[in-house]
C-alpha cells in the first residue's frame, strides 16, 4: 500500500502518479562500502535534460507524423477514414481485409493463397478503395444511389483489371444491392447489376446461380427493349446471348448424367434463347449442339432436323467450317440411322468443302471419317485412298495425335484390302501363288492383284538363306483345306504386323 | 455504523484509505480499513468498500506463523488468487459506476483496483492500465482534466512501452484519451484518438461488436458537437444497429427456452440466465446509458428518419426485458409500435409485434422479487 494516491476531493490535482521510479529502489552498485555515499539526486536527470544538438535542430514531429511512422499503413488509412467520419467505409474495408486473412488461414500454408500479397500490403489498392468507398458513403448519405452504383461499378472494374477476382465479385454483388435502391430508371441499373453478378458467378463456376441472375436480367430486359448496352446491343439481345450460353454450359455439364432429358431440356432452352436473340450464328451453334445431343441420345430424326437447320444457316452465312461441321454431324446421324448412302454423300460434301476452304485440319478429319465409313462398308479401295489423304494431311500439319490415328487406320485399311488377295493365294495352293506369298514376305510389295503370268516353265531357283530360315511357313502353306481358316487368321495377324512395318519403313525413308 | 476515533500505537502510522493522510477512524466491520474522516469513509463505502469489506480482512491480516515452507507458499498462492479476483471485482464495479454517471463513487473503486494491481503486478506493469483508465475517465467526468491527463499519460506511456499490449486495452486507452480531448474541446484530436480506439477494438472484436460501439457513440457525440449532424446521425444509427442486433440475439436465446412450459416461464428463464452469454454489469450500464441518450436524441430530433426512433425504442424495450424490467420493456415496446406505424419497414414492425407478444406472455415479475 505504499503508492501515494491522490485524494478524492482534493481540488489541487493531487500527487503525481507518473513517477513509479520513486518507489522502486535501484539495486546497489558495487560492494557495500559501509559508508553512505553522498546523495546525488537529480544530477542524472539533469544530464538527460541536456539537449542533444542534432535532434534539437530538427523540427518537432507532429503527432500525426509519429503515428504514421509507428503504425502500419492500413492502421493509418483506417484512422484517417474514421476521423473524416466515414465509418461505414471503414467497416467495409476492414471486413474485406479480414475476410482475406481468414481465407488465407483456412487455406493453410500449403496453398497458393499463402504466398500471395495480402490486400493490406498493397497500398495502391488500399488507396483506391479508400477514395471510392468514402465517395460512396458520401453519396449514400446524400441519397444519391446512382453515384453509389457508379463508384461501386468502377471499383469492380478496377479489381477485375488487377485480377482480384474476389474483390470484383464483392463489388458487383454490392452493385446489385445498390441498384435495388435506384428507383427512377425502371430497373435499368438493376438489370445491369444482375448481368454483372451473373457473369462473375459464371466465371466462378456457380452456373445455377448465374443462370438465376441471368433469368432476372432477361425478365427486366424483355419488358424494356429500348435499353442499349455500351456495344450497341439491346439489353434483350444481350440477355438472350448470356442465357443461351449458360444453358448450354449447364447442358454440357449434365452430359454425363444418367438422365439425358434434363440435358436436352437445357440445350433446348439454349436454342430457344439463341433464336430469340436473332443472331444467326448463335442459333446455328445452338442447333448444332442440340442436334448432337439428340444424336447421342439416339433420336436421329430430331437430330437431323436441327443439324439441317444448322447447315442451312451456315450455307446462308457462307461459313465453310460450319458447313463442314454440319455435314460431318449429319453424316454421323445418318449413319446411325442406317442410311449409309446418304451419309457418304454428306461426307463427300464435307471433304469438298474442306478442300475448298483450305482448312487442312477439317480436310484431314473429313477424309478420315470418309475412310472409316468406307472401311466399314468393305470398300477398302476407297478407304485406303481416304486414309492416305488424311495421313498425308496430318503429316503435313505435324499433328502427332492425328498422325498416329491415321497411320493405324491407314494400315488397317491396307491390310483389309490385301487380305482378300492373300487369302486367295493361299487357297489357290499352287506353286506360283506360294512363291508370290514368299516374295511378299520378303519385299512387302502388294502384287496380289496382278494376274498370274502364263504358265511358263518355272526354273527352280536355289533357295536364299532367308527362305531357308523360314521353312515352317512353307510347310504351313501346304496344309489341307480343313485348316484353312486357321491359317487365314494367322495370315491376318501377319499382315497387320507387316503393314505396320512397311509403314514405319516408308516414313523413315520419306523423312530421310 | 459507529465510528471509533483511533488511538495510534507507537510506530504504526495508520493512513486514510483514500487520501493517505493520517487516519482517525476505523471501519467497524472489517477493522482493517482506516479513514481520515467520516466524509471519506462514506465515499469509500458507497463506492467500493461495501462490496469488498469482508474480503479485505483476510488480505490485510498480519501473516500468521506457519511452520512449513509449503504452507507459506500455499497461503501466498491463495492470497494472490484472491487479489486477482478483487482486481476484477473492483474494476467492473468502477466501470459500472462510470456508466451510471457516478464518477465520484467510481474513484474509490478504481483506487482500490489500482492498489491491488500494483500489489500483484508491480508498478510498471501493463495490468495497471485499466485502473488508470477508470481513474482517468472518472476524473474527466468530474471535470478534473489535468488530473485525468496525468492518469492517461501514465497509462499511455505504459502502453507504449509494452509493444505486445492487447488491442482491447489500447482501444480503451484511446477511447479515454478521445473523451479527454473532447472535454477539452479539442475535437480534431479527439476524433483521431477515437478513430484509433475503433481501429483497435475492431482488430480485437470485429467492427460490429458492442465493445466497439462505444467508440462510434463517442465519435458521434463529437461530430454532433462539431455540428456535422449528418455524420453524427449515421454513427448513431450504427451504434443503435449494433446494440439492436446484439439484444435481439440475447432476447431470442432467452425466449426460446420457456416456449414449452408456458406457466412457469419466468422461473425457467431465470434459471437459464446464468448459462447464456449476455451482458456483464458494466455492459448493461453502458447499454442503458447509450440507448437512453440515443432515445432522447431521436425523440427531439425534428427531421429524423422514421425507423430510427422505432429501432431505438425496440432496442430499449429488449434491453429492459433482458434486465427483467418488464413494465419498462412494455412501455418502450408500445413506443416502438407507435413509431413504426405507417412506415414501410415490415421486418422491423413484425419483430416488434412479436416481441410484444413475448412480453405479454411473461407475467410481471417485480412483485415477486
Per-chain topology:
The complex is a heterodimer of chains A (512) and B (369).
Chain A: H1 43-49, H2 53-57, H3 63-70, H4 73-83, H5 87-107, H6 123-142, H7 145-162, H8 165-179, H9 188-204, H10 207-223, H11 235-253, H12 260-277, H13 280-296, H14 300-317, H15 320-337, H16 340-357, H17 360-377, H18 380-397, H19 400-428, H20 431-443, H21 465-469, H22 471-477, H23 484-511
Helix pairs in contact in A: 4-6, 5-6, 6-7, 7-8, 8-9, 9-10, 9-11, 10-11, 11-12, 12-13, 13-14, 13-15, 14-15, 15-16, 16-17, 17-18, 17-19, 18-19, 19-20, 19-23
Chain B: E1 4-5, E2 25-26, E3 34-35, H1 38-60, H2 69-99, H3 103-121, H4 129-142, H5 145-161, H6 167-184, H7 187-205, H8 210-226, H9 229-256, H10 265-273, H11 281-300, H12 306-322, H13 326-340, H14 346-361
Antiparallel strand pairs in B: 1-2, 2-3
Helix pairs in contact in B: 1-2, 1-3, 2-3, 2-4, 2-11, 3-4, 4-5, 4-6, 5-6, 6-7, 6-8, 7-8, 8-9, 9-12, 11-12, 12-13, 12-14, 13-14
| Rounded Rg of chain A | 42 Å
Give the rounded overall mean pLDDT of chain A.
71
Oligomeric state of the chains present here: heterodimer
Structural class determined from secondary elements of chain B: mainly alpha
Written description of the protein model:
The complex is a heterodimer of chains A (512) and B (369). Chain A has 23 helices and no strands. Chain A has 512 residues and is an all-alpha fold. The radius of gyration of chain A is 42 Å and the shape is elongated. In chain B, 71% of the residues lie in helices and 2% in strands. Chain B contains 14 helices and 3 strands. In chain B, strands 1-2-3 form a 3-stranded antiparallel β-sheet. In chain B, helix 2 (69-99) runs parallel beside helix 11 and helix 6 packs parallel to helix 8. The relative contact order of chain B is 0.06. The A-B interface holds A 1, 3-10, 13-14, 16-18, 20, 23-24, 63-64, 75, 78-83, 85, 87-88, 90-91, 94-95, 98, 137, 141 and B 15, 18-21, 39-40, 43, 104, 107-108, 111, 114-115, 118-119, 123-124, 132, 144, 146-147, 150-151, 153-154, 157, 188-189, 191-192, 194-196, 198-199, 202, 206-208, 216, 219, 223, 228, 230-231, 234-235, 238.
